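Hi D.,

Good news: the full-assembly prediction came through. Inputs first.
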Amino acid sequence: AQKVTQAQTEISVVEKEDVTLDCVYETRDTTYYLFWYKQPPSGELVFLIRRNSFDEQNEISGRYSWNFQKSTSSFNFTITASQVVDSAVYFCALRYTDKLIFGTGTRLQVFP
Amino acid sequence: DSGVTQTPKHLITATGQRVTLRCSPRSGDLSVYWYQQSLDQGLQFLIQYYNGEERAKGNILERFSAQQFPDLHSELNLSSLELGDSALYFCASSVQPLNEQFFGPGTRLTVL
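Then the structure:
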């Protein structure tokens, strides 16, 4: 079965702290894609990254970085030097056929 | 702004009624997806269309239906509404079915 688990329901940090959001996935497919989306308080879903199963290189985009490890079926997301604007719910997702299977999300609150 | 538009932004209606949610995909995107986000079910895939044809179906109730028109916009029809249908309904689009999906701002449906 295809499944995404985000065990952290809510994380609170103070501005400038680093924070890692965990994502564990289950799939029997040998080729698959993983995604992260951000849902700020305004409600829209913002695409952050797509990673395919053949590319285990870590990705960095500004203060954001992603660590993909097939051995542990994890695709973790780190925000360095967090800011108040990073406060949002973050979803990890696995593409199965054409649809996205989402985790339950992690609510990140960054306090000034 | 993802380029995906959804109308209306908010919809308040009564049980038993029927509503239509509208989605315009990003320019050039052929694939449209509908998702429902509720507190108890999280983000769930409902249905997908590609170039006017239904391509995949998820946990969509029989009371719900959708279509994609020749101009590629899509409509999601919800009928015999129940209190439990209150949710945020997202439309997403992608160039091709396997590409990343970009989400619209959502339509918040409240059934009273």
